[in-house]
């Protein structure tokens, strides 16, 4: 079905495309002074590279089409969400902080930061490549599990984002903490369901002898969410802006996996 390429060629082409995309975004931020555009490009890049990996692989044709659709839909939702949040708005605090801290060296350091994002585009498209190399006919029990996990993951992220957005629209107290819907059971349900989504490709890759390598992406993502770029800086900012209200939320609500809230003991 269509052009089929070896995986080294796929990775080389995907890497070149990701570098070109992020270099273009870096040039754009030189003019706009809004480095947040890297997030929009990251989501779009994974979708494009992932779909390319799927459609040019050597596996089952129906599986390839399904994977291209899954990563494409994931990317479309995320890219649209980030585009509306970033484009036309002031630069987000984390990038403004980097710009201030890096001073006169900011553009050089941002260039390499953008190239690091190009590398992660390929890393996050990697599970799709492994799954698309599977020659198992689509429709096995593990394929069904994979699609269910994908639906739960993407649906959970979309729902948590919608609940948070509605809370922000309807709450006048800027120091209030969102504890509605999924946010009652997890302080970061969007992170949890995003992480869950990436396990779907592991199930879809089972016909590939190297299927276990699809776990690299969600495992690395878990580390960064829990210890590096996810929860720690997000909660530091939340405490700075919401103070004791957020500290009380931390004491009663699971940080990641949704679970029933605890009763705070006075």
Automatic annotation (TrEMBL):
- Pfam families cross-referenced by the UniProt entry: DUF1295
Q: Which domain of life is it from?
A: Bacteria
Record GO cellular component, one term: membrane
Is-annotated flag, keyword NAD? no
User: Keywords assigned by UniProt?
Assistant: Membrane, Transmembrane, Transmembrane helix
Keyword Transmembrane helix applies: yes
Indicate the transmembrane segments per the record.
6-28, 40-59, 65-88, 109-132, 138-159, 201-226
Q: By its UniProt entry, which PANTHER family does this protein fall under?
A: 3-OXO-5-ALPHA-STEROID 4-DEHYDROGENASE (PTHR32251), STEROID 5-ALPHA REDUCTASE C-TERMINAL DOMAIN-CONTAINING PROTEIN (PTHR32251:SF17)
Q: Provide the protein name.
A: Uncharacterized protein
Starting at the broadest rank, the lineage of the source organism is: Bacteria, Pseudomonadati, Planctomycetota, Planctomycetia, Pirellulales
């Amino acid at each position: 079905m269509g052009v089929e390429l070896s995986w080294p060629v796929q990775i080389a082409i995907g890497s070149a495309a990701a570098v070109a995309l992020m270099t273009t975004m870096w040039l754009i931020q030189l003019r706009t002074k809004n480095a947040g555009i890297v997030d929009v490009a990251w989501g779009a890049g994974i979708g494009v590279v992932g779909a390319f990996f799927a459609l040019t692989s050597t596996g089952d044709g129906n599986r390839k089409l399904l994977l291209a659709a899954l990563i494409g839909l994931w990317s479309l939702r995320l890219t649209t969400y980030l585009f509306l949040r970033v484009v036309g708005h002031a630069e987000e605090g984390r990038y403004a902080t980097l710009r201030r801290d890096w001073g006169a060296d900011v553009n050089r350091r941002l260039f390499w930061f953008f190239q690091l994002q190009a590398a992660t585009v390929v890393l996050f498209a990697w599970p799709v490549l492994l799954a698309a190399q599977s020659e198992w006919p689509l429709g096995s029990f593990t394929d069904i599990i994979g699609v269910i996990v994908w639906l739960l993951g993407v649906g959970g992220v979309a729902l948590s984002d919608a609940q948070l957005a509605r809370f922000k629209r309807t709450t006048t107290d800027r120091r209030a903490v969102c504890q509605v819907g999924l946010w009652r059971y997890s302080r970061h349900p969007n992170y949890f369901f995003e992480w869950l989504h990436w396990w779907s490709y592991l199930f879809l890759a089972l016909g590939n002898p190297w299927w276990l390598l699809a776990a690299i992406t969600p495992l690395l993502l878990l580390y960064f969410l829990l210890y590096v770029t996810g929860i720690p800086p997000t909660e530091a900012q939340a405490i700075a802006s919401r103070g004791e209200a957020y500290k009380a939320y931390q004491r009663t609500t699971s940080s990641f996996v949704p679970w029933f809230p605890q009763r705070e003991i006075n």
